[in-house]
Design a protein that fits this description.
The chain is α/β, with parallel strands linked by helices. It is built from 5 helices and 6 strands.
Length: 162
């Protein structure tokens, strides 16, 4: 049997989730999480094998408290524009963006990822949204830092080709 107060909290979370089409408020910059325990979610997911499988996949990200906002990457902020484990600084983002603009590549359809190679050196990968994919990424030079910038076309190509 489930606790009725927790069920009410879960139903309120579900209503807000559906109204926002996800667990970020409509503006997209603040995450909300259900005010229920992990055990409650496990209990209600035991109604079917599919629900149990989904519980295993979604519970940890759904209940994660941080990062809870969108923006420049930091301990409390996440961004799909700067994916990957290596965090970019605002200065790195500005420098790479300036080099891209000088090459007539604009931020509206790009994401920037910082990568540490096996030899310990850094490079930036600019994933450009497009249907077309390149066999070989285009390399831009950052003459100030000497860090290579690879422009890789084809980010979201599957979705864009529909």
């Amino acid at each position: 049997m489930v606790d009725l107060a927790e069920m009410q909290e879960f139903l309120e979370f579900a209503a807000v989730f559906l109204a926002n089409v996800g667990n970020y408020y409509g503006t997209g910059d603040q995450k909300f999480i259900p005010r229920v325990s992990d055990m409650f979610l496990k209990k209600i997911s035991s109604v079917s094998s599919l629900a149990s499988q989904l519980y295993d996949v979604i519970t940890e990200p759904m209940l994660a408290r941080r990062p809870s906002n969108l923006g420049f990457p930091s301990d409390i902020v996440q961004s799909s524009y700067y994916p990957g484990a290596a965090r970019l600084s605002r200065q790195e983002i500005a420098r790479v963006s300036r080099i891209l603009e000088d090459s007539s590549i604009y931020a509206e359809n790009t994401r920037i990822r910082k990568v540490y190679k096996d030899d310990g050196k850094t490079r930036f990968e600019v994933m450009q949204g497009s249907i077309e994919r390149d066999d070989h990424p285009r390399e831009l030079d950052d003459l100030v830092s000497g860090i290579p910038i690879l422009v890789i076309r084809g980010d979201h190509s599957k979705e864009l080709s529909k």
